[in-house]
Amino acid sequence: MTTTMTAPEVQTTQVYVILIKASQEAVWEAITEPEFVAQYFHGARLERELKSGGLYRSHSPDGSQLWVDAQVIEVDPPRRFVHGWRSLYNPECAEEPESRVSWEIEAQEEGICKLTVVHDQLEQSLKTAASVAGVGWMTVLSGLKTLLETGQPLAGPSTT
Amino acid sequence: MNDDDRVFKALADPTRRHLLDQLFERDGRTLGELEADLEMTRFGVMKHLRVLEEAGLVVTRRSGREKHHFLNPVPIRLIHDRWIDKYTEQRVSALVELKTRLEETG
Lengths: 160, 106
Prior knowledge:
The complex is a heterodimer. By secondary structure, chain A is α+β, with helices and mostly antiparallel strands. Chain A has one domain (14-151): START domain (Alpha-D-Glucose-1,6-Bisphosphate, Chain A, domain 4), CATH 3.30.530. Chain A has helices spanning 24-32, 34-40, 91-94, 126-132, 135-150, and strands at 14-21, 45-48, 55-59, 66-76, 80-85, 99-107, 112-120. In chain A, a hairpin with a 3-residue loop joins strand 4 and strand 5. The longest helix of chain A is centred in the C-terminal third of the chain and has 16 residues, at 135-150. Chain A is globular and about 45 Å long. Chain A starts with 13 loop residues before the first strand and ends in a 10-residue tail after the last helix. The relative contact order of chain A is 0.21. The mean pLDDT of chain A is 90. Chain B is 68% helix and 11% strand. A two-stranded antiparallel ribbon of chain B has the order 1-2. The model of chain B has no long low-confidence stretch (mean pLDDT 88). By secondary structure, chain B is mainly α. The A-B interface holds A 1, 3-9, 11, 13-19, 116, 118, 134-135, 138, 141-142, 145, 158 and B 3, 14-15, 17-18, 21, 24-28, 38-39, 56, 59, 61, 70-74, 77-78, 81.
């Protein structure tokens, strides 16, 4: 048995799970309310309609750049929020078709929630898949956890 | 045992690190695919996967009749932020300080 570092294939289904000491409702708010989202999602200015088929769109903090333009797919508060994804902030990724992001919130014991983010349907969007993989989503989730648990956004280099 | 303990314990075994490396190369593998690469009984592989799952490093999702295993890198990232960043940052800033001091006096 050897431990080699082979270059990974681009993952077209990405799963991220994080435990957060917060109520299901608080986590739901943090992922759907624009004023929360702005504090951990690279400052994104989110507009969304909480209904299936509603818009899910975000701009850069100064409003000058369109970052994501997609649709809400499923809304089941406070358990499940699914929306489309397009990485319009990156010109190469912007040409690729829409992928899908699902947020699942499960209550665990002692006021802890398990948040699972699945980014899938990336088979035709390999550049997007590579750009959001690993550090991309983890920075967002780590910031979300810090915000909910401390009330403060994550400071320092990890937010960039 | 807290979350960090579980992650460190899970990582303290070469077979489990090998399983993580396999999923890092290609995610979403089934048990059959994971065990093909190991000289170990199916039961042994399942035991290791359970430890990884309890530590949150592996997440399983069903799709039809198949159970797929996904690497969840988040706990390692959190340990990195908590344990690695802290120490490497200090060392780097100590070096920067040394350089500044040497350059000032030199």
